[in-house]
Amino acid sequence: MADVKANPPAKPGTAKVKHARDPCNNLEAVQFVQDHLEDAKKLASEAEVPVENMLGLAAQESQYGAGRIAREYKNYFSMHAPAMFQTREEPALNDPKVQVAVFDSFYQSGRSFLARFGDAIHGKSDPDAFAQALVKAGFNSGKAATGGRDNFAHYLADIIRMVQRRMACSTKE
Q1: Which of 75, 93, 138, 172 is deepest in the core (most CB within 10 A)?
Q2: What is the DSSP letter of 49?
């Protein structure tokens, strides 16, 4: 019998789940990373940043490819029109004054992102520095009151770190 005094049972709701942050548990996210890895490598090479920075930003902006703008318009980097390499533009669903750029591929969407923001993120290998450079360049204000996401830089840096871990995952069963 276990020694209850030496090892008391955990209070309800306080036991740690062993695999709660296992990067491989979210199969859709892992698949997104694998599906776009080769294109992201090309984009990252051009910007001289780690591939996880490009994939992490695309994952955040497109909800790992599940977002409507990514699914319908292949716009993985939230590029507004007019944008380089777009094939056309469409009005945003919630604000028809905003035009969304439509692309042929993940790669073209990424090229467009680099055309607009590449100088700001060039050589930024650290996830925090990469994310902060995007805020400074106006990609996201980092404040919900001005149309951005509160704490965008911290949030994006965490996603980049998770994407880096997901790059080692397999979707094979």
Answers
A1: 75
A2: S
